[in-house]
Design a protein that fits this description.
The complex is a heterodimer of chains A (378) and B (255). Chain A is mainly alpha-helical. Chain A is 76% helix and 2% strand. Chain A has 18 helices and four strands. Chain B has ten helices and ten strands. In chain B, 33% of the residues lie in helices and 24% in strands. The chains are: A mainly alpha (378), B alpha/beta (255).
């Protein structure tokens, strides 16, 4: 029995080892290339203005990486990631407003619109460690409670999408309605420092960009590990046949909840780095339209591929600001047209071109291996 | 499984009723499923065979009692029932088509794995998975996506998934339907090999397969148990002949 087991083990694992190694570590090489471009090439080649923009795209890309996990791998169309982006963004912005107001001071807009007193729940955000803690804990707690309530009730598909989208609408409406506490429609802006560093200092600006880009790379590595882990396999299984997973002894709601919470934390950290780079966070950065733009980048790039969501989000961000400067009228139409073409001909996004290209390359990979790799690889 | 427990595991069903808005799909069924025998569940379409299994595995709500190791299965959530050691397959084989055969089995083996270990990649083929690959004869296809498997192979993979999760009770819903004669024989032999320390319930329409492999047969009709016994007893039962359209052909002879 032991000998037969041993043979079974070798036959099961030896043949595709080379292909498997390539699939796994090939993805790491791809991440390293992205890191090289973002962390080495960009800071030395782009103007401070362009670099700041790229920092913003990276913050959107962080949210997009999370969406790739929740939607591409987990099958949950999260249409309200703006909520979590906003939780992180507003948390950071509140801290910066309090820094700008100085010790004991209160944010300027509260005197402007309110009676000059600060609501008690603002006070803890004076502390930098608490702010950093809240950037992670707040979205984690909110997404856990929401996700638990939604997923345990087996809400899925379009209903899940509509529910999360409605949350984004409600969140933006709440912000606009509470001008005395959150700055309302104007959002929070005119910051001076972040954790004691002057935001107008070019070195600090560059540093913020580097933090943004580095976090994006870290998230990509985290998702890479997620995808190759047993959890990643289970998540795909849950996406494709939720009921079957239940009859293997797992509660699919728990499996999806992990991805939902992870995606929320990623969006929140993205929002937290967005606020100091952009110098503002307002309801228009977190509302339904903003949430849809995050999804759009992911769909364009390829939702279930590793690099698809991040590169898609950066491309959409680039298109929105840089290309639209050059072609102010034509850009919106071009973007709409691009989406129609991609959804019609490449429903799995631009990343799905990669396995097709790879299968044309000579040798080493059978069509089946390429087929599976298309799910795993970039 | 220790020797003293062999033959002692069973599910005792008393007064099981499944009510779909007034229509009783299962109507007060009493049934004992014993360990170590291939128990066939037969009956015309709509007799309630699959609904019975659905109720026992947490897919539909049933009232009454179904005791397994001092727990009432009715009212338990599906994944908890699986964790107790009760597994099932579905009429249409449902495997994870995008994942490989190996990954399919590995996920099924995960019931007994600690949650924290989920965050790591699989480094080697777990022994139980390797053994099962051999038992179900799919070693050569271990790294192929399950979606490319033939119908019969998918059904074997499903049985394999039950084996790696070490299900003590297996409900197999029309596993040999659509299989070739050779595949049926292989499946039947496989079931005979694994049944001694398990409780296996097979829902089946193929009477020849039933006659060849059944240790015990329960005939259902209109949500009730019509007859129970060995193959010979069932074949001799006039009531059974009656529900099978009044012809002895189906139960007695070939289809």
């Amino acid at each position: 029995m032991t000998t037969t087991t041993a043979t079974a083990t070798t036959t099961a694992s030896s043949r595709p080892k080379a292909a498997q190694l390539l699939g796994t570590y090939g993805s790491l090489v791809a991440i390293a290339l992205v890191a090289l471009v973002l962390l080495v090439w960009a800071p030395n080649s782009l103007s401070p203005f362009r670099l700041g923009n790229l920092g913003k795209y990276c913050s959107w890309a962080m949210a997009a990486v999370g969406i790739g996990l929740a939607w591409g791998r987990g099958g949950m169309l999260v249409m309200g990631q703006g909520v979590f982006f906003g939780l992180g963004g507003y948390t950071m912005a509140m801290h910066m407003k309090l820094e700008a107001a100085g010790p004991g001071g209160i944010p300027d807009f509260m005197t402007l619109y309110g009676d000059g007193t600060m609501p008690g729940w603002w006070a803890p955000f004076r502390s930098a460690p608490f702010t950093l803690f809240a950037i992670i804990a707040l979205p984690a707690a909110v997404s856990f409670l929401l996700g638990y309530a939604i997923l345990k009730r087996r809400v899925k598909g379009a209903y899940f999408a509509i529910l999360t989208q409605a949350l984004a609408v409600a969140f933006a409406t709440l912000l606009i309605a509470t001008i005395k506490q959150t700055g309302g429609f104007n959002g929070l802006n005119t910051f001076s420092t972040v954790f004691g560093h002057n935001l107008y200092d070019p070195g600090v600006k560059k540093g913020l960009y580097l933090v943004s880009a580095a976090l994006l790379i870290v998230f990509l590595v985290i998702v890479w590990q997620f995808n190759r882990s047993r959890y990643g396999e289970l998540l795909i299984a849950t996406r494709d046949a939720e009921e079957r997973v239940r009859f293997l002894g797992y509660d699919p709601a728990n499996v999806k909840l992990v991805a939902f919470v992870a995606a929320a934390i990623m969006a929140s950290i993205g929002g937290a780095i967005f606020a100091p780079i952009a110098g503002i966070i307002s309801p228009s950065n977190v509302d339904a339209a903003a949430s849809v733009m995050m999804i759009a980048g992911v769909a364009l790039g390829g939702r279930s591929a590793l690099l698809g969501p991040a590169l898609g989000a950066i491309a959409v961000g680039f298109g929105q600001s840089t290309l639209s400067e050059r072609f102010p009228t034509g850009w919106t139409y071009f973007q709409g047209g691009l989406f129609i073409v991609v959804i019609m001909f490449l429903p799995a996004g631009l990343a799905s071109l990669w396995p097709k290209v790879k299968s044309l390359l000579p040798g080493r990979m059978s069509p089946q291996a390429a087929l599976v790799d298309g799910e795993n690889g970039a | 499984m220790t020797a003293s427990l062999i033959g002692q595991d069973y599910i005792e069903i008393r007064g099981l009723t499944v009510d779909f808005d007034g229509f009783k799909a299962i109507d007060g069924v009493d049934l004992t499923l014993m360990q170590g025998r291939l128990h066939f569940l037969i009956g015309p379409n709509g007799a309630g065979k699959t609904t019975l299994v659905d109720a026992l595995t947490g897919l539909v709500q049933g009232s009454g009692e179904a005791r397994f190791r001092n727990k009432n299965l009715l009212g338990m959530r599906a994944h908890r029932i699986v964790q107790l050691g009760i597994g099932r397959t579905f009429q249409t084989a449902t495997v994870f088509e995008q994942l490989t055969v190996l990954q399919n089995l590995d996920i099924a083996a995960g019931v007994h794995r600690k949650g924290s270990r989920l965050l790591f990649a699989r480094r080697a083929v777990p022994e139980r998975v390797a053994q099962t690959l051999e038992t179900i004869g799919l070693q050569a296809l271990a790294n192929r996506p399950a979606g490319i498997l033939a119908h019969g192979q998918k059904q074997w993979l499903e049985v394999g998934m039950l084996l790696v999760q070490d299900a003590q009770v297996m409900f197999l819903d029309e596993t040999v339907a659509g299989m070739s004669a050779d595949e049926r024989e292989e499946t039947g032999d496989l079931l005979e090999r694994i049944v001694p320390d398990r409780t296996i319930v097979v829902i089946e329409h193929d009477m020849e397969f039933m006659r060849r492999y059944a240790d015990f047969v329960t005939v259902m009709h209109a949500g009730k148990v019509l007859a129970e016994g060995t193959v010979a007893e069932i074949q001799a039962d006039p009531q059974v002949h009656e529900v099978y359209l009044g012809t002895a052909a189906e139960v007695g002879a070939d289809e």
